[in-house]
Design goal:
- There is one protein chain.
- The protein is 42% helix and 23% strand.
- The chain is of the alpha+beta class and 244 residues long.
- It has three domains: 67 residues, Winged helix-like DNA-binding domain superfamily/Winged helix DNA-binding domain (Arc Repressor Mutant, subunit A); 50 residues; 98 residues.
- Strands 3, 4, 5, 6, 7 and 8 form a six-stranded mixed β-sheet that branches. Strands 1-2 form a two-stranded antiparallel ribbon.
- A hairpin with a 7-residue loop joins strand 1 and strand 2.
- Helix 4 runs antiparallel to helix 5.
- The termini are far apart.
- GO terms for molecular function: DNA-binding transcription factor activity.
- InterPro entries: CBASS_pafABC_assoc_protein (IPR051534), DeoR_HTH (IPR001034), HTH_11 (IPR013196), WH-like_DNA-bd_sf (IPR036388), WH_DNA-bd_sf (IPR036390), WYL_dom (IPR026881).
- This is Helix-turn-helix, type 11 domain protein.
Amino acid sequence: MARSNSKDRLRRMDMLAVQLKQDGLCTVSDLARQHDVSERTIARDLLLMREQGLPIDSDRGRGGGVRLDRNWGVGRLNLSYAEAVDLLISIEVSEQMRSPMFLASLGSVRRQLVASFSPDKRNKVTRMKSRILIGDTASTYVQSGVAAPPKPVVQALHQAFMDQEMLAIGYRREDGVTSERQIEPHYLLLKYPVWYVVAFDHLREATRVFRCDRILSARRTGTQFRLLPRDAFASSLDGNDLLV
C-alpha cells in the first residue's frame, strides 16, 4: 500500500510542477480540489518539491498562492504506459499520413519513447500499432456530419481496444435507427478526420465497421477476445482503399 501511495505522490508532484509552470499563480485550495487530496497533502508535496530544488514562490495573505519560476524548465516527462502508447501511436499516425509539416523531430521522439518500454511492452506496442489503419480522407459529405464522440465512449473504446476486450455499445445508424450490440474492437481505421472501429459484431455474427461518433454509449465487459487477421475484415473494409 505504501508503495502505491508513493507512486501516486511522485506522479502528483510531477503534475503539480507542470501545472504551476503552465498556469502561473495557483492557490493551495484549488490544487487540493483538482487533485482530490487535502490542502495539507498539497502543502507537504510543495514543501518536498522545494527541498528537491524547485523554485516555488509563495504569496502570503488573502488571495495569495504559489507559483513556479517561469525561467525554470521541466527537465523530464514522466508518462504512464498508457500515455506513452497514446503519444507513440499519434506519432505513427502522423507519419503514415505523410504530412510534410512538423515531422522533423518525430523520429527522434519515437525512438526515445520506444526505448523507454521494456522488451515485452515494446512487442505489445508494435502489435498494437499494426491495428491502426489509415485510409483516404473522408468525403466532404461525411465530414459535414461528423461530431466528437462523448468522452466516456472514447475512454471505454480506447481501453477495450488496447486490452482486446469485448465492448457493449449503443449505436445509431445514419438513418437514425439505434441498437444495442456487443463488439470486438479488432482494428481502428482513420479516414481523416473520422475514426471507425473495425469489429466483429455479435448481434449480426459478422464483421462490421462502426463510425466512432455514432457510438452513443460504451461499456467494457471484461471478456477478452482473440485478434483476427486483417484479411478476415476484407469484405467490411472493401472500398476504403486502405494504405499499407
